[in-house]
Write a structure and sequence with these properties.
mainly alpha; 16 helices; about 0% strand; globular; Vitamin K-dependent gamma-carboxylase; HTTM-like; Sporulation_signal_mat; transmembrane helix; transmembrane
Length: about 325
């Protein structure tokens, strides 16, 4: 019995140590900083497009009547400020402020403050549900913005770091526990997203009979590149359909082992690349790949981005990496 209790105590100690290591090991904030750059760019682009017809999307005389918009918010925690803004200069001023915030997030100025503002603003736009304009991209934008605010997202690849160097301060960011927590939460959230996406597909007959991929690429409303040649290779259509369901269902398991992770992420590139190119959703594909980047190592990200950052810093007279 004594040996049993000793073995259990050892197992419990190892479990607690593994938990602490998973959540609280300091990591280089390079990955979170890189995610911030692309998240800011996606938010800026998404909301800049809405500028083309801002009143139709968010004005009181737009596509959705105020009473219908209000009804969609019953029983939900929302931050719908647009009914109070009206459709005139006040709406335009608020929108211009939002675009500036998203741009500042992208370039990394006052990053910790701007990240909070960007998340709140993104949620404000997303909760003003406009039929025909609220897609997965808006949800993933909010997801990414939420996790950038939890850690030092401006530690690298930012104007903040460049300014610190110009002031002669030590701009080399230390390893961060909060950066690790932000990335871990993003990783787990992504696992949940894919799991429920796979479970949702199991409710559709076409995912069972292997034809879902064909109906997706044959839809002329979304098509950007012509993949109808797949009609001559029905075995490939069937394989892509079932492989997609399998990958989404088991992503939450197979992405964690180090040997399997590169293959899982390469599959993500292929799948979301296919969605972006074949179904006219490049921004959504990019957003999902940015979320998958949470599984990349800081060494890989720095190897890819530091040379570019050093070049930009040199052009701006920063004397080092941004």
């Amino acid at each position: 019995m004594k040996n049993l209790f000793a073995a259990f105590r050892g197992y419990l100690t190892d479990l607690i140590a593994a938990w602490d290591s998973f959540w609280f090991t300091p990591v280089d904030p390079a990955v979170l900083s890189a995610i911030r750059v692309v998240t800011g760019a996606l938010l800026l682009w998404t909301h800049l497009i809405w500028t083309l017809d801002l009143g139709a999307f968010f004005g009181p005389e737009g596509w959705v009547a105020p009473e219908i918009a209000a009804a969609t918010h019953v029983g939900r925690m929302t931050i719908d400020i647009f009914p109070w803004l009206g459709g005139g200069w006040l709406l335009g001023l608020f929108h211009a402020f939002s675009l500036i915030v998203f741009f500042l997030l992208m370039i990394g100025w006052a990053s910790r403050v701007v990240a909070v503002l960007a998340f709140v603003l993104a949620v404000m736009y997303a909760t003003h549900v406009t039929p025909g304009a609220f897609f997965g991209l808006d949800k993933i934008n909010c997801l990414l913005a939420m996790y950038t605010l939890l850690g030092p997202c401006g530690a690298r690849y930012s104007l903040d770091r460049l300014l610190r160097r110009r002031r002669g301060e030590n701009a080399d960011p230390p390893a961060s526990v909060s950066a690790n927590i932000a990335l871990r939460l993003l990783q787990l959230h992504l696992c949940v997203v894919y799991l429920f996406s796979g479970l949702g597909k199991l409710q559709g007959v076409r995912w069972w009979d292997g034809t879902a991929t064909w109906f997706a690429v044959a839809n002329t409303e979304y098509r950007s590149l012509d993949f109808t040649w797949l009609a001559n290779h029905l075995w490939l259509v069937d394989l892509l359909t079932h492989a997609t369901v399998f990958w989404e269902l088991f992503y939450c398991v197979i992405v964690w082992p180090r040997l399997a992770r590169p293959w899982v992420l390469l599959t993500a590139v292929g799948m979301h690349g296919f969605i972006g190119l074949g179904m006219g959703m490049p921004e959504f594909a990019l957003a999902m790949l940015v979320a998958n980047a949470a599984f990349l190592s800081p060494e890989l990200v720095r190897g890819l981005l530091d040379p570019v950052a050093n070049r930009v810093a040199g052009l701006l007279g920063g004397g080092g990496s941004t």
